[in-house]
Amino acid sequence: MRRVLIAILVLAMLIIAGVYGGYRFNDYWIHRYDGLIERQAKVYKLDQNLVWSVIYEETYFRTSVIGDDEEVGLMQVTPTVAREWAKETGLKEFEKKTAQNVQEFLSDPERNIQVGCWYLEKLRTKYRDLPAEKAMMLAAYNAGPSRVEEWTKDTDKTKLTEKDFIDRIGIASTNSYVSSILERYRQLPPKENTPVTNQNSFEE
Predict the structure, then answer these.
(1) Cα-flanking dihedrals φ and ψ of residue 82, to 5°?
(2) Vertex 42, ends 40 and 45: CA angle to 5°?
(3) Could you give the CA distance from residue 135 to residue 139 in angstroms, rounded to a whole number?
(4) DSSP 56-123
(5) Contact 159, 131 (CB under 8 A)
(6) By the number of CB atoms within 10 A of the CB, which of 19, 102, 144, 188 ranks highest?
(7) pLDDT digits (tens, 9 = 90+) for 169-198
(8) Which sequence spans correspond to the domains of the chain?
(9) Residue 189 φ/ψ, nearest 5 degrees
(10) Which CATH class is domain 32-187?
(11) Does residue 82 carry a pLDDT above 90?
């Protein structure tokens, strides 16, 4: 009987150790790029918790993911967006790299987050200060700005609430995508983003 109790105790300790180890590893996994996210979110004046939530939804922080439409890396950036970003920087080196091997370029976590944040901010300018700003930005990131226009063409965007906009999203996967990100984002403790000024976001 004593041996059975010892065996049960050892097994219980192993289970507890396994659960704790799994928790610690998962915590490390989902927060290992927090510094990069904070840096690039500040550059593009985005909420770092929102960027984190996008990466969580897109790839669960896996850098090697390639999407069905050739989206690459953490934020599932498309080659087209990467080349647009490279052209806007005015740096020939980035244009050359994105032309020659865009997948390798976007596999770098910081470059991927940098380009993804740039694109999010570019989309955000279309919906800035609207009641459904975040939801529209996320929908455009997932399905394209033309879809957002389609879903809002017969409405006054300045009066369209976030919930009403989400209800109008005509693609089930995009509806789920936007809803999931916003729900996760709003469960996170707020972090202060200090705007970055006079900083070259294209530095090596």
Answers:
(1) -60, -40
(2) 110
(3) 6
(4) HHHHTT-TT-B-TT--BTTTTB-HHHHHHHHHHHT-HHHHHHHHH-HHHHHHSHHHHHHHHHHHHHHH
(5) yes
(6) 102
(7) 999 999 999 999 999 999 999 876 544 433
(8) 1-31, 32-187
(9) -65, 135
(10) mainly alpha
(11) yes
- Residue 55's region, left for phi above 0, alpha for psi from -120 to 50, else beta, is alpha
Residue type (1 letter), 102: V
User: How far is residue 58's CA from residue 181's CA, in Å, rounded to a whole number?
Assistant: 9
DSSP letters for 141-196: HHH-HHHHHHHHTTS-TTT--HHHHHHH---HHHHHHHHHHHHHHHHSPP-PPPPP
Q: What is the pLDDT of residues 100-132, one digit of tens each?
A: 999 999 999 999 999 999 999 999 999 999 999
**Other beta carbons within 10 Å of 194:** 8
- Residue pointed to by tokens 């300018």: 125
The 8-class DSSP code of residue 204 comes to: -
Tokens of 201: 């976001």
Which residue is listed with tokens 């399905």? 143
Q: Is 201 helix (H, G, I), strand (E, B) or coil?
A: coil
Is there a contact between 84 and 99 (Cβ–Cβ < 8 Å)?
no
| Size of the chain, expressed as the number of residues it contains | 204
CA distances from 93 to 39, 97, 204 (A): 22, 6, 11
Cα 167 to chain centroid, rounded: 22
SS3 54: helix
